[in-house]
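Supplementary Note 2. Why include the ligand at all?

Several targets in our set were suspected to adopt different conformations when bound, so apo predictions alone were not considered sufficient. For every target with a known small-molecule partner we therefore ran a joint prediction. The input for 3-methyl-2-oxobutanoic acid is given below.
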Amino acid sequence: MRKLYIFDTTLRDGEQSLGITLNVNEKLEVARQLEKLGIDIIEAGFPASSPGDLEAVRTLAREIKGMVICGLTRAVKKDIDVCAEALREAEQPRIHTGIAVSPVHMEKKLRFSPDEVVETAVAAVIHAKKYVNDVEFYAEDAFRSDPAFLVKILEKVIAAGATVVNIPDTVGYATPWGYGELISFLMAKVKNIETVIVSTHCHNDLGMATANSLAGVMAGASQVEGTINGIGERAGNTSLEEVIMAIYAQKTLYGVNTAINTKEIAATSRLVSRITGVPVPSHKAIVGANAFMHASGIHQDGVLKEKTTYEIINPEVVGIPRNLIVLSARSGRHALRHRLGELGYQLTQDQLDGLYARFLQLADQKGEIFDEDLHALMGLNGRQNRIVLKNIAVSTNGISSATATVTLGVGEETLTDAACGTGPVDAVFKAIDRIVGKTVKLEDYSLKSTSRGSETLGHATVKVRYAGGSLIVGNGISTDVIEASTKAYLNALAKINFG
Ligand code: KIV
Ligand code: ZN
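The joint prediction is reproduced in C-alpha cell form.
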C-alpha cells in the first residue's frame, strides 16, 4: 500500500471562487476541523491576493502544527516573497507556485511563448526554494496542454527543486480515461518523476472531478487535491469526502491508504456549509441529508433484513451515529451529553448547563429533538455577537408591506428604531440598518428547516456586502423565522469592519 496524501484547498480554491471572505477566525475553525479529519496538507490561501488572505495564511501557519500549511502564488517573485513571509512560522511550510501551460492560456492570457513559460516556471521554483524546501509546482490547464510540452516543463521544474507536481484539469474538461492516461503518460515519460509526488487537481464542470481524481490515483498519483462538499470555481472542485470514501470502500482496488479519520467527515461538511453559507444538496454523495436514507418499500424491506443489501457504507463510519435514544423535554442532561458525545461534541459542565436550558426550551416547543436540531444548537452555541437582539415587533399591513420595531443591545446601550419594508424580514433589516447607522446590501437570503416536523427550527443564512467589499455570511436559528433571520443579519454585521 502506498500513502495517498490528501490536500485540502477549501480555504483557497473553495473560498476564493465563491466571492466570500471568511475571516481569520472562521478559517482557523475550519483548519482545526481539517486537522481532526486527518488532512495532510491545508492550502490556507493566496497571500498576495489580499491582506485578509495574507493574515489568514500567517495565522494558520502559526497555529496549526503537525501538518503541511501551504500558500498559493503565481510564478511571480513578489507573490512568492509575500507567501514565504506568510508561512514564516509554519512547522511544515509549502509554497505552491505555477503557471499556465495550455496553448490557449499561454498565447491569449499570458502572451508568453512556450520557452518564456518554461523559463518563468523554473525561475519561480528556484526562487521559492530559497525560502522553503517543499515546493509544489502547478501546471495550470495541464489537461489541455501539449503532452510533450508538459513533459519538458515538468522535467525542468523537478530539476530546479520541485517536490510535488500538480496536474490540474483547470476547466473540468477531462473524463476519467483521458485523465488517467495523461497521468500514466507522465509517469512513464518524465525522466525524474520518481523523485516527486504527482498530484491530481480536478474541477467538476462535467461532473467528473471525483472520477478523474480516482483515475489519477490508479495511474500513480500520490496526492489528491479537493475541497469539502466539493465547493469551488464554477461547478466546484473534487469532493474530498467522495474520494476518501471511494478509497475506503474499495481499498484493495486502489492499493493506497490515507491518514483520514472518516468519522469526522459529517462534522467537517456541516461546518464548511455553515461557515461558507453554501448548502449541501440533500442527495449529495456521502454528506447529503438523504445519503443514508432508504425511502422505497423494497429497499426498506432489504435493509431491515440485512443492511448490506442496499448500504455500501455504514453511516457511523462517516460520523453519522445510529440513534437509539429519543430526546424530548423529559430527557435529562445525561442523555443529552451522551448523544452529543456520539455526535462528536465534548462539553464542559458549564457549557452543558447553558445548552440544556436552550434544549429544554426547544423541546417544549417542538416535542422530539433530532440530531439536526442538536447540530443547529451546537453550531451557533456560544457565538457572541457584539450586537445583541433584545426585541422585535412586526406588523404586516396587507400584501408586500410591513413595519418592524427592533431593539438591540449595542455595548452598554439599548437602542430602538422602526422601519417599513416590503415584508417583515426586509422591515427588520432596514430597522437594524437605522440603528447601526449603516446601509448594508443584502445579496442573498435563504431559510431552511433544520430537521423534520412542523415545529422544526428555522435556519436563516444571509450574504451581505458593505461598501463594495466582499460577501459576508451570517447564520441564525430559531423556531421563529423572523428571529432566525434577524440573528443571521446581526451575525453577518458582527463580522463587518465598518472602519
Ligand atoms: O485549477 C487550477 O488550475 C488551480 C491551480 C491554481 C492549482 O486551482
Ligand atoms: Zn483549481
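The two ends are 54 Å apart (CA to CA). The chain has a mean pLDDT of 92. Comparable summaries for the other entries are listed in the accompanying table.
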